[in-house]
Amino acid sequence: MIGLSPKLTQKLAWGFVWLAGIIAVLTLVFIIGYVLAKGLSAISPEFLFTEPKGGLSGEGGISSCIVATLWLIIITMAILIPLGIGAAIYLAEYAPDNKFTRLVRYSVELLAGVPSIVFGLFGFAIFVLALHFNYSILAGALTLVCLLLPFLMRSAEEAIRATPQSQREASLALGATKWQTVVHVIMPAAMPGIITGIILCVGGAVAESACLYVTMGGSAGMPSSFLSGGRTLAVHVFYLAMETNALDKALATGAVLIILILIINLSTKWLSQRFQAKMSGET
Amino acid sequence: MSRYFIDRFSRRIVFIFGMVAFLILVFIAVFILKESLPALKEVGVVNFLFGTKWYPSHDAFGILTMVAGSVITALLALVIAVPLALGCAILLAEVAPPRIRNIIRPAVELLVGIPSVVYGLVGMIVLCPVIARLSGTGSGSSILAAAIVLAIMVLPTITSISEDSLRAVPIQYKEGALALGATRWQAIHHVLLPVARSGITAAIILGTGRAIGETMAMIMVIGNSPIFPTSIFQPARTLTGNIAVEITAATGIHESTLFATGLVLLTLVMLINSAGLLAYRRRA
C-alpha cells in the first residue's frame, strides 16, 4: 500500500467490501429468481397431482415425490424430536461438568461436520442391509435422524440454557422435583427456541439429498407405506436433471423446493420476532 | 407412580438420549471401518490410496484421482469464496448501516437453506454452457464449474463465523486505534483482523470441511469422470461423487472399496473439522 494515502486506501477497501456484499445478494437473487421464473409457469394442479412417468422425457408430475417427502418428514420428526430434546435436556440440565461430558459434547460437534454421503453409507450398511429395511422411507428417515440430531440438540440446548436460573430455583424451592421443573417451568420457556430448531430441521429434511439418494432407492412410484422405497422432491430434481431431458420439470420441482424453503425461513423469522416481542412486553 | 419415581426414571431416559449422538459417531466409524477392511486387505492400503486408476470392472481401485478431484475443487472454491466472504463479513460487522445489514444478512442466511440440488441444477443450466464456450470443448462440466458452485455454497458459512469473530473483538481496541488517528479501514486492517484471526481461520477451515463433503451439486456439474485433474476446464470426480454414483450398483470387493472411499473422506473431514474447532475455541 506504499504510495496510497490512508484515505484513498480506505476508499478502495470500502469499494471492495460493498462489491462483495452486492455480489452475494445478487447471486441469491439470481438463483431464486431464475428457478422461480423458469419453474413457476410449469407448476399446475396437474403437475402437483400426477405421478412421474419416468423415461427419458420425464413425463408426468411430482405427486409421489410430495407424498414420499411428507412420509419422510413425519417419520423423521417422530423419532428426532423426542430424541433431540431429551438429549438436550440431559446436556443442559443433568450432565456433570467432567471429561466424559466434554467428550460427548465434542462428538456432537464432530457429528455435525460429518458429510451427508457418509451418513448415507452408514444408513445403507446398517438400515438397508444389516437390519433388512431394504431401500425404504424408513431407512431414509433413520439415516436423516442421525444427520439432523446434532443440529436439533444444539438449538434445543441453547434455548434451554437461555431460561433464567431464578425460575429453576423458584420451582425447586416450591418443592417440585427436578423433572417437574424441567417439564413445567423450563420447557414452556424454551419452547419457541426449540420450535425454531425443529422447523429448521424440517427445512434440512426437505433440502437433503445425498444420504437419501443411497438409502431410499429412488423409485418414482407412489409409496404405499413407510416400508416402500421412494424419492423426495430434492432427489427427484437430481434424477430429472441427470437422467432425463426434462430440465423444465426439474426447474419446476426446484421452484416448489424454493417456495417450501422460503416459507420455512420466513416462519422461523416470524416466530423468533414474536417471541422477542413477547419477552420484552411481559417481563 | 410417585413423582420421585418419575424423576429418577426420566433422569435415566434423558441420559440414554444424551449418549445417542456419541454412539452414532462411534457406530459410523466402526461400521465404515469394518466394511472397508476387505478392500484394504485385497487391494492394499498403498495401492488404494496412491493408485490413480479407477476401473472397477478391471479390479483397479486407486482413489488418488478422486482425492485430487475433491481437494483441488475445494481449494479453488476457497480461492473464490474467501475474499468475498471476508468482504461480506467486514461489510456486515463494521461498514454497512443497520438498514442495509438487515437486507444482506438474511440473504446470506437464506443461501444456506437452498437445497444443494438446486445449486447443481442452476450450475448445469447456466454456468456449464458459459464454461463450455470459454474453454471451447466439451459440455462445460468441469472442476471450474464445481468450484464456482461450491464457492457460493460455502460463502455463508465463512461469512457468518468471520462476522461473529469480528464482532467479538472488544470495542476498546478499535476505539484505541481510532483515537490514535487511524482511519476506520486502518483500524480494521491492523487491529480488528489480526485480533479476529483465529476465528477467521476457523471459519475458513470449517468451510473447507463443508466443501469436501458436498455431494449432489458436485455430481451435477463436475462430469464425474475418474480422470486425474490436470486442467480446471476438465471433468473430474470427487470422493463424495465416487460413493454416491456407484454404491447402489456395487457388490463384493467393489462395494467394500466404496466404504473405504467413505473412510478416507471421513478421516479427511474429521481432521479438517478438528483443526477448525480447535481454532474456533482459541478465537478472540
What does this structure look like?
The complex is a heterodimer of chains A (283) and B (284). Chain A has helices at 6-39, 45-49, 63-94, 99-113, 116-130, 137-161, 165-173, 178-207, 210-213, 233-243, 247-282, and strands spanning 52-54, 59-60. Chain A has 2 domains: 6-40; 46-279, MetI-like (MetI-like fold, Orthogonal Bundle). Chain A has a two-stranded antiparallel ribbon. With 283 residues, chain A is an all-alpha fold. By secondary structure, chain B is an all-alpha fold. Helices cover 79% and strands 1% of the residues of chain B. The longest helix of chain B has 41 residues, at 3-43. The model of chain B has no long low-confidence stretch (mean pLDDT 91). Classes of the chains: A mainly alpha (283), B mainly alpha (284).
Could you write a compact summary of the structure shown?
With 283 residues, chain A is an all-alpha fold.
Kindly state the number of beta strands of chain A.
Answer: 2
| Series of H and E elements of chain B | HHEEHHHHHHHHHH
Radius of gyration of chain A: 23 Å
The class by helix and strand makeup of chain A works out as mainly alpha
Q: What is the C-alpha radius of gyration of chain B, as a whole number of Å?
A: 23 Å
CATH class of the largest domain in chain A: Mainly Alpha
Identify the biggest protein-protein contact and residues per side.
Answer: A-B, 88 and 92 residues
